[in-house]
Protein 1
Amino acid sequence: MLSAREAAENARRQDVRNRWLLSAPSLLIIFFAAVGPLFVMLLYSVMAKGDYGDVKLWQFSADGWFGVFFQRDIFDDTLALNDAHVAIFARSVKLSLATTLITLLLGFPTAYFIATRSERSREIWLFLITIPFWTNLLIRTYAMQEVIRNEGVINTALLKLGLISAPVQMMYTDMGILFGMAYVYLPLMVLPLYASMERLDFRLVEAGYDLYATRLKVLWRIIIPMVKPGIIAGSILVFIPSLGAYVTPRVLGGGKNMMLGNLIELQFGQGRNWPLGAAISITLMAIVMVALLFYVRNASRPGARHG
C-alpha cells in the first residue's frame, strides 16, 4: 500500500497533469496565433528573396538583415549606410517619443481632474474618455484631416483671429502625424494615470500645502512619485502602438512621411522584398521588447505599485 506521503504526491501530480490538459487547447491557440507568425517572420528574415515577391524556401541568406541598415551601390557594389531606412527609424522613434510626451502633458492634468471629482462625476468623465474607442481608427484619422487641413478647424480659427495670414501646412507633414497620433492614443495615457491617481492619498497633498510647499514642489515631490507606475504604464501603452503605427502616418503623412509600419507594408507589397520586411518586423519587435523590459524593471522595484 502507498504511504500517505506517496498518495499526496500522486494526487498532486495528477492535479498538475489535469491542469496542463485543460490548458492545452488555449496554449495551442496562443502558440499558433501568436508564436507561430513570429516564427514564420523569423524564418523569412533569414531566407533568400524570391523572384516574385516571396522567399526561396530553405535557401538561407543574410541579405534581409543586411538591408535593414545597409545597402550596396548599384554601380560599384560598395557598402554604405541605408540613409532612407535610418531616417524612417529615426522619424518613428522621434514621433513616438513626442506623442508619448504630448499625451503625458495632456493626460496628466486630465487624469488629476477626474480623480478629484466626486465618485458619480468620475464615471461620467471616464465614459467621455472612452467614447473615441467606439469609433474605428481609420474614421478617427480621417476626421483629424478636417481639423488640420488648410481649410480645417485650426487654420480657419487662426485666420479669423488674425494670427496668421496664410494657412499653415500641417497635412502630409510630421506635425500632422504627431497631431493624429496624439489624438488617437491620448485615452491610453489617461486611463492608467487615472488608475494610479484614484488610489492617491490626497491627505499627503494637503500636508504638503500645510508645510508651506509650493504647488510645483507638491507636484514634483509628492504627486509624481506616487503615480509613477501609472506614468510608466501609460507611456508604454502609447509608445509601443505609436512606434508601429500604420494608418495614421499613411493617411495624414500622405505616404511621403513613412514610419516603420509603412516601411514594413511597403516591403511586403510594392517592394516585393519579404526577407527585408520580416527583418524590419523583428527589429521593431526587439525595440518594443526593450521598452517592455524597461517597464517591468521599473514596475518591479520595491515600493512600486502598478497603475
Note: The chain has two domains: 4-80, 82-300.
Protein 2
Amino acid sequence: MQETETAEPARRWMGVGRSVLADSRTAAVAAATVAQTGAETKLLIVFAAITHEPAAVLAGLAEAAPGVTVIGCTTHGEIGPGGPADGTITVAALGGPGLQVETSVATGAAGRQGDAGYEVADCVGRVDLPHKVLMLLTDGLVRDQESIVRGCYRALGAAVPLFGGAAADGWRMSGAYLFHNGQVLTDAVVGAAIASEAPLAVGVRHGYQTVGQPMMVTRTENGRVLSLDDRPALDVYLERLGAPPEVYTDAAAFTAFALPRPLGVQRRSGVEARNLSTEVDLEGRSIGGGGAIDPGGLTWVMTGDEQSILEATDAACRDALDRLDGREPIGMLTLSCAALRAALGDEGIQREGERLQKWAGSLPYAGFYTYGEIARNHGIDGFHNQTLVVLALS
C-alpha cells in the first residue's frame, strides 16, 4: 500500500510588504498583498508616511484584506527589509492558527492619559492563549505619555508586557494620525492584544551613558521639568554639559546640542533616556520630553555616539530573541526613535538598518521612527525616548 505524505499543520506566521507607489490606495493594496504570506490573516499593522492620505490608505487595506483587523499610524520614516525609508507604506501582517488578536480604542486622550491607557487595556481580557502582549499606538503630540502606560499597568498589573510607540508626522509637529479599522484618529490610543500559543518577547535598549553626579527634580508641571536642584532646569542641564553660550539663547542651536544628550531618568530597570530636543523653552527655562518625570526623582545628563547607539540596537534584538525560550522566531516588530534618527543622520540610520537586518536574517521585520517608544517587561513605567524597542514573535 502506497504511503501518503502528511502535510505539516499550518502555523503562525508574519509577513511584511512595502510599497513606494505615490497613490495611497494603490500603495496600501500592494503592501498588504505582499505582507499576507499565509492563511487566516488576523492583523494588519500599517506604518504610513505622513505624505499619504490616511483614508485612502485604509481603503486600500480593506480592499486587500476584507474583514481583517487593522491598526497603524503615521511615521517619521518606515523601517523594514531594504533599510529605513521615507514616503512608503509598510505593512506587517500576522496570522495563522494559535494566534488571537483583539483591539480597543480610547479617544480624547489628552488630559486623561491614565484613563485612556486603562480603557485600551480592556482588549487583553478578550484573549485567552497563554502568551500575551499589549501593543499600543499613541498620538505622539499628546503630552505625558508615561501616564498612558501607567493606566495600562493599573488595569493589567505586571503580568502582561507592553510594546508600541507614538505616532509621528515627519517632524512637522502639526498632527500625527492613528488607524483602527476604517477610522482615522487623533488624540487617541489604539491597543491590540496579541496572544499566541508560543512565546512573545519584548526588548528595549538605549545607547547613552550618564555623566557626572545626579540632579534632583524639584519642580514639575504638565510633563515638564521646571527646576533641577531648585534652579531653572534648562540652565542646570546646560551647565552640566559645558554648553557653548549660543545654546542658552538660540532654539536651533539648543536642538542640535540636545539631540545626542538626553536627560537620564532613574527607574527600577535603570536610567532611561528622555529626549529634550523637541521641547525647547528658552523663555521659561524648563525642559521636557513627553514623559512623566516626578518631583523628587533623580536625573542625569547623558551622552552617546553612533557606536554606542548601534550596540544598543544589537542588545535590544538579542534580548528579545533570547527571551523566546528557544522557540524559532517568525518575525520582529522594530520601533526606533525620531530623535535617534536625527542624531545618527542619514548614513547612521542606514547602518542601524543593517544591524536590524543582521539580526532578522531571513525573518520579516517592520516598524517606524516614533515620537516615543513603549516597552515594559516589569514595573509600572515603560515610556522611552531614544531607544530601540523590539517585539519578537515565535
Note: Residues 159 and 346 are 38 Å apart (CA to CA).
Protein 3
Amino acid sequence: MIWVDTIVQGILLGGLYALFAAGLSLVFGIMRLVNLAHGDLIVLAAFLILTVVNLLGLNPFVAALIAAPVMFAVGWLLQSYVLNRVLGDDILPPLLVTFGLSVVIQNGLLESFSADSQKLSAGPIEAASLPLGPITVGVMPLLTLISAVVVIFALNQLFYRTKLGQAFRATSDDAVTAGLMGIRPRNVFAIATGIAMVVATIAALYLGIRANFDPSIGPARLIYAFEAVIIGGLGSLWGTLAGGILIGVAQALGAAVNPEWQILAGHIAFVIVLLIRPRGLFPRAND
C-alpha cells in the first residue's frame, strides 16, 4: 500500500502542476507564444492575493476572487500593449520580451516584498484529510486536483462550445483569414492572455497555501508548466493535465526511492516521453 499511496500523492501533486501549465497551454494553443514570464506571473498573483489578505483580512479563497479580475486586466494590458507588438513569424522577439518581463517582475517583487518566504494561511483546511479506503489524502491536495480538472474542463467548453472559442480557434488556425471575417486577432489574443492570468491566479492560490513562495521561484514553476505542456502535446488542454500528473507521479516515486531524486525523476520522465513521443502524448491534429 505504500506504493499505492505514493502514486496517489503524485497524482494529487500533478493537479498543481496542471494548474501551472493550463494558462501556458491555452496561450500557446491560440497564438503559438511561449511566455517565459508565466511562472513569475503566477508568483505575482500569489503576492497580489497575499496583499489583499493582509489589507482586508480576507480568507485567501475570497482574496483570489478579488485578485482574479486584476490579473485578467494585467494579462489583457500586457498582451495589448507589449506582446502583440512582437508577435510574428519570428519566435525570438516574444522570447526576449517575456524573458525581460520575467526579470522585471522578479526584481519588482524583490524590491516590494524582500526575499523573505511568504505563505497564505487558509486555516484548518490545510491540515484536514480524508480517508479513501486504505489510504488518507489531504483535503487541500485533493481540492487542487479537482480545481485543475474543473479549470481544464471549463477551458475546453469555452474553446469548443462558445463564440469566443470559435474566434480562438479561427485565429489560431489563420489569423489573417480570421481578420478578413471580422475577427480582431489582437483583441482575441488579449482576451486569451487575460483568461490565462485568471488561471494563473487559481494556480497561485494553491501554490501559496500549499508551500512557501518568494520572488525567485517563478522560473522553477515555469519549468514544471512547460514540461507538462510538452508531455501532454502542444495546445492540448487535457494533455496538459495528463502531463502534470505524469510529472507529479514521477516525482513522488523518485522521492520514495530517495528524497534527493524527487525533482530529477520528474525531469527524467519528461525526457523519456520526448524520446518515445516527440510531439507529446496527445498532440493536436493540426500541429
Note: The chain has one domain: 2-111+137-276.
